[in-house]
């Protein structure tokens, strides 16, 4: 075995929002990859439209900087638990990792998850206590908690001997000892050079593992991954080895390596580096690209199983086909199956109904991001309520369980434990810091978490933080009764008017404004009582010749509550759907007419009586 001392491959991992992408900004800025006058802004790597809007990283991404003649390939990863599949997918490219821990929050559930994955892969960790500029930071305590986490997760003794850097990504500073005054990020670079092992390389015929894919309208499919053995140059003959064992021959097009935000075309790249190659039309993540001389497949990338499923169906609302560019079964199916090429923890299945696909993901946000992306691409379709994925193991029905952690204020403990006990949660830990802050831990079936987030944020007035992490499968705990009250359902198709909406507001809160087009069976509001009620929001006031009073002239509507896509998915019950189009998000009953719904209720009553 040889080493390449001119390269380091390092992944940045942490809980959501602990400052990974901001730290990458600091590394890029200090490495002068931008012109002096270039305005680059913040969160430079979060270039996806939804990443920018939501302020979170969704996809893992590569970049590289050169420091003292050594190229450091940096892999930024997402911290939200729903995108854990991304972390698992890319850490195979790295030899070391920066584990970031917020100087106030300390290790959080996803810190544990990503550290476990990194240690299992044998990555050399560097702990970065980050955001040390924050007021009230508790650095020593956080370091202690991080050490405890290592004690629990380390697979070998040498993993306990990790270096620690104290940093403020936002200020672009890092120091090796607490109390030192930081001036730039150099100590972090020095630590990476010293502690992250240089890539081991094997000589011999070319072999690389594909960890990511991209697409370019001129160059076609682009494969990204680390070279484990040999060299690659443009026009080299290679084979691509897929999961089913099949082998296809290709000629490599171009070869690129990373530098800053750019891809740099190179005449040759060698083992140990992370490269981007074109010319391979049929390739999936996890495939090996190798020299035809000695085609040996590398172990495929394993990512965790999905826990939540929902159906994506062709839009069947009376407004179908009006707002989307792509609305047919074929278009919907092709788009969903194409997503599998890059979205590794996603699953798509056909169902008994040809117009409906079952889509499985790692959480509500994972699926909501896919829905939002497709809607912006011009697709229209309908989705069902997300449900936990159950399995039958040895004849017994099993369901996924999660650990739920809540960081909240003392005053909310009562209301939260009551909400959660209805959702079959068991309190497993409660810690109080003596300053009114409480940390609660529960074990809860995944099904109990569905639509919990919005209820939680409302109940605690947005003052609390929740996190979940997959725990494993347990025997089915029984059904959970829906906690939501009934819906206000439009009884006629037409245009909603102030008069009709005002009447509806006498029955509950409304979700739509005057002039909204509605159809029979569309959900236009929430009734405080358990039953659905039909309302005619299109009803105009009867015209008479006599003006009875001034109150007729100016009816003041209470502003409607507008649900976002995630809230809409959270809101619906099993007998309801969300209709998604590029222009609108509508809620509806599955059965649109009242007659159909009454018939189905009486049918289900009869079947439970017999
Ligand atoms: N005070 C302070 N805030 C920081 C620092 N670094 C990042 N932040 C802030 O923390 C928030 C999250 O930063 P990001 O860099 O997006 O965090 P991330 O870990 O990449 O987040 P995900 O990719 O979504 O998991 C932003 O509002 C940053 O401005 C820091 O060093 N100090
Ligand atoms: Mg990020």
Task: Briefly summarize what is shown.
By secondary structure, the protein is an alpha+beta fold. It is 23% helix and 32% strand.
Task: Summarize the helices and strands and which ones pair or pack.
Blueprint: E1 2-3, E2 7-14, H1 20-30, H2 49-54, E3 61-67, E4 70-76, H3 84-90, E5 96-102, H4 109-120, E6 124-130, H5 139-153, E7 164-168, E8 173-175, H6 186-195, E9 200-201, E10 207-216, E11 220-229, E12 231-232, E13 237-241, E14 247-251, E15 255-259, E16 262-265, E17 269-270, E18 274-278, E19 288-290, E20 308-313, H7 329-339, E21 347-350, E22 356-361, H8 364-377, E23 381-384, E24 387-388, E25 391-393, E26 396-409, H9 413-422, E27 426-432, E28 437-445, H10 446-449, H11 452-459, E29 465-475, E30 487-490, E31 494-495, H12 498-505, E32 509-510, E33 517-518, E34 522-526, E35 533-535, H13 565-571, E36 576-580, E37 585-589, H14 594-609
Parallel strand pairs: 2-4, 2-5, 5-6, 6-7, 30-35
Antiparallel strand pairs: 1-9, 3-4, 7-8, 10-11, 10-19, 11-18, 12-17, 13-14, 13-19, 15-16, 15-18, 20-22, 20-23, 20-24, 21-22, 23-36, 25-26, 26-28, 26-29, 27-28, 30-34, 31-33, 32-34, 34-37, 36-37
Helix pairs in contact: 8-13
């Amino acid at each position: 075995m040889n080493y390449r001392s001119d390269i380091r491959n390092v992944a940045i991992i942490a809980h959501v929002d602990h400052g990974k992408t901001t730290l990458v900004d600091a590394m890029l800025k200090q490495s002068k990859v931008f012109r002096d006058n270039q305005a680059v802004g913040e969160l430079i790597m979060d270039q996806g439209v939804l990443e920018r809007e939501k302020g979170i990283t969704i996809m893992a991404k590569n970049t590289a900087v050169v420091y003292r003649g050594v190229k450091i390939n940096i892999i930024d990863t997402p911290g939200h638990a729903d995108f854990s599949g991304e972390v698992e997918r890319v850490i195979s490219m790295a030899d070391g990792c920066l584990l970031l821990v917020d100087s106030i929050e300390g290790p959080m559930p996803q810190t544990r998850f990503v550290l476990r994955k990194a240690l299992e892969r044998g990555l050399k960790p560097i702990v970065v206590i980050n955001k040390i500029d924050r007021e009230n930071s508790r650095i020593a305590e956080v370091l202690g908690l991080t050490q405890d986490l290592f004690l629990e997760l380390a697979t070998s003794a040498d993993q306990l001997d990790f270096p620690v850097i104290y940093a403020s990504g936002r200020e672009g500073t890092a120091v090796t000892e607490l109390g030192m005054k930081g001036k730039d990020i150099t100590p972090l670079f020095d630590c990476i050079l010293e502690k992250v092992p240089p890539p081991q390389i094997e000589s011999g015929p070319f072999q690389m593992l594909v960890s990511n894919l991209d697409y370019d309208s001129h160059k076609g499919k682009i494969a990204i991954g680390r070279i484990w053995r040999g060299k690659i140059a443009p026009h080299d003959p290679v084979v691509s080895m897929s999961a089913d064992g099949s082998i296809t021959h290709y000629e490599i097009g171009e070869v690129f390596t990373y530098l800053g935000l750019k891809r740099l075309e190179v005449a040759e790249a060698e083992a140990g580096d992370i490269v981007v190659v074109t010319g391979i039309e049929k390739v999936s993540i996890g495939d090996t690209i190798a020299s035809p001389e000695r085609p040996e497949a590398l172990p495929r990338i394993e990512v965790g199983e999905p826990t939540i499923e929902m159906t994506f169906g062709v839009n069947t609302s009376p407004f179908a086909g009006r707002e989307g560019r792509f609305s047919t079964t074929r278009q919907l199916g092709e788009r969903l199956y194409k997503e599998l090429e890059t979205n590794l923890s996603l699953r798509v299945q056909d169902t008994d109904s040809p117009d409906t696909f079952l889509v499985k993901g790692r959480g509500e946000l994972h699926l909501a991001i896919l829905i939002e992306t497709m809607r912006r691409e011009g697709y229209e379709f309908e989705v069902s309520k997300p449900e936990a994925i159950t399995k039958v193991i040895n004849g017994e029905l099993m369901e996924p369980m999660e650990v739920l952690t809540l960081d909240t204020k003392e005053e909310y403990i009562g209301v939260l434990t009551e909400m959660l006990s209805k959702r079959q949660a068991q309190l497993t830990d409660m810690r109080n810091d003596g300053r009114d802050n409480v940390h609660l831990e529960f074990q809860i079936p995944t099904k109990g978490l569905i639509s919990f987030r919005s209820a939680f944020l409302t109940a605690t007035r947005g003052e609390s933080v929740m996190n979940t992490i997959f725990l494993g499968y347990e025997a089915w705990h029984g059904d959970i009764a829906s906690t939501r009250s009934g819906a206000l359902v439009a009884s006629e198709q037409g245009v909603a008017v102030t008069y009709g909406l005002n009447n509806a507001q006498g029955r509950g809160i409304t979700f739509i404004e005057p002039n909204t087009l509605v159809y029979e069976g569309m959900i236009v509001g929430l009734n405080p009582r358990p039953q659905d009620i039909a309302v005619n929001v299109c009803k105009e006031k009867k015209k008479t010749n006599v003006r009875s009073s001034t109150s007729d002239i100016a009816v003041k509507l209470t502003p409607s509550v507008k649900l976002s896509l995630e809230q809409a998915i959270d809101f619906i019950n099993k007998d309801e759907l969300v209709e998604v189009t590029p222009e609108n998000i509508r809620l509806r009953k599955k059965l649109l007419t009242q007659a159909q719904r009454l018939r189905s209720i009486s049918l289900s009553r009869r079947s439970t009586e017999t």
